[in-house]
UniProtKB/TrEMBL annotation:
A matching Pfam family: Lactamase_B_3
InterPro entries: RibonucZ/Hydroxyglut_hydro
Iron among keywords: no
Keyword Repeat: no
Keywords tagged on the record: Signal
Protein known as: Zn-dependent hydrolase
Signal peptide interval: 1-26
Organism, scientific name: Ancylobacter novellus (strain ATCC 8093 / DSM 506 / JCM 20403 / CCM 1077 / IAM 12100 / NBRC 12443 / NCIMB 10456) (Starkeya novella)
Origin organism lineage: Bacteria, Pseudomonadati, Pseudomonadota, Alphaproteobacteria, Hyphomicrobiales
Domain of life: Bacteria
Length: 275
C-alpha cells in the first residue's frame, strides 16, 4: 500500500470515528426529517424574488455551469451552489453555498446582498454544521475530506450540501474526493436528486463516483464538473450499464416534483458552461 493510500485510509478512519461521536447529520435527523414543523418560522425574513414563477409543490433547478446550480422554491427562496467569481446566475441568490477545493467553487467577493453565505469548511479544519430553515427550504450538510496538492488529506475540506423543499431532497456532492461510508449514507437518508462531479480526476475517479451514486440510489442524477464532452461521454459510457436511463436535455431548467420523479433511475444531462 502506498504512503498516500495509507494517509487517506487513516484520515477516513479518523473522520468515521468523529462522525460516530457527533455526525454532521445524525441518523435520526436525516434529510426527510429535518424540516420545520411550521411554514411560518421564517415569515419575517426578507424574501428573494424568484427568477421565474415556481408552481406549488415544485422546485426549479437550473444548471448554470461547472458546479453551480440555481435552486428556486415555490416560496421564492433562491440558492446558488458552489458560488464563485467565474460562473454565477443572473440574479443575486438569497443563499450561496461554497466549497474550498479551488477558486471555481468559492468566492472571495460574494455579492453583499446575499443574505446567507454558507462556507462548506472552516480554516481550522474543524467540522462545520448547518441545520437551517430559510423560508420553505431546509439546508443541511455532511462533511467529507479532500486531497491537497501534495497528495495529503485536508480533513473536513468539502461539504455535501443537502436542500429540501416540496418534499424533494437534493444533494450537491461538491468537490467529493472519496467514497461514502455506511454511516455517511445513513446520515444523508433519502436523496431524490444528486448533483454529481463526473470529471474523474480532480474529484473522485469514475469508478468511485459510480459506487457513490449506486449507494445513494437517487431517482435522478445530474452530472456536473466536467470540462468537455469527451469527459462527460466517458462517464456516461461507464454508467450506461448500471440500470440507469440517460436523457440529454436542451434546456438548462428542470422542474422537479415528487409526483414526476422518474420510475426508473435516470441520468439527466443539462446544458451549462464549462471551462
Amino acid at each position: 500500500m502506498t504512503r498516500f493510500a495509507t494517509v487517506c485510509l487513516f484520515a477516513l478512519a479518523t473522520v468515521a470515528m468523529a462522525f460516530g461521536a457527533a455526525p454532521a447529520l445524525a441518523q435520526a435527523d436525516r434529510c426527510p426529517k429535518l424540516v420545520a414543523k411550521s411554514p411560518f418560522l421564517d415569515a419575517l425574513a426578507p424574501k428573494a424574488v424568484p427568477a421565474a414563477y415556481v408552481e406549488p409543490k415544485h422546485v426549479n433547478l437550473t444548471y448554470i455551469g461547472h458546479s453551480t446550480f440555481l435552486i428556486e422554491t415555490a416560496g421564492g427562496v433562491t440558492v446558488a451552489t458552489d458560488y464563485n467569481d467565474y460562473v454565477r446566475p443572473d440574479l443575486t441568490p438569497r443563499v450561496a453555498t461554497m466549497n474550498r477545493a479551488h477558486l471555481t467553487h468559492y468566492s472571495l467577493n460574494p455579492d453583499p446582498r446575499i443574505e446567507y453565505v454558507l462556507k462548506g469548511w472552516r480554516e481550522d479544519r474543524d467540522p462545520v454544521h448547518y441545520d437551517m430553515q430559510v423560508g420553505d427550504l431546509w439546508i443541511g450538510n455532511l462533511q467529507t475530506n479532500i486531497r491537497d496538492y501534495t497528495g495529503g488529506t485536508i480533513l473536513n475540506g468539502n461539504s455535501i450540501f443537502i436542500f429540501r423543499a416540496a418534499d424533494i431532497c437534493i444533494a450537491h456532492l461538491g468537490h467529493l474526493h472519496h467514497t461514502l461510508t455506511e454511516q455517511d449514507l445513513g446520515a444523508l437518508g433519502r436523496i431524490d436528486v444528486v448533483l454529481a462531479p463526473v470529471d474523474g480526476s480532480y474529484t473522485l475517479d469514475v469508478d468511485g463516483m459510480i459506487e457513490v451514486l449506486k449507494a445513494l440510489q437517487a431517482p435522478v442524477v445530474i452530472p456536473m464538473h466536467y470540462f468537455n464532452q469527451s469527459t462527460l461521454d466517458r462517464f456516461l459510457g461507464r454508467f450506461a450499464s448500471s440500470q440507469y436511463a440517460i436523457e440529454r436535455r436542451e434546456d438548462p431548467h428542470l422542474l422537479l416534483s415528487r409526483e414526476t420523479l422518474p420510475a426508473k433511475p435516470t441520468v439527466i444531462v443539462l446544458p451549462g458552461s464549462h471551462y
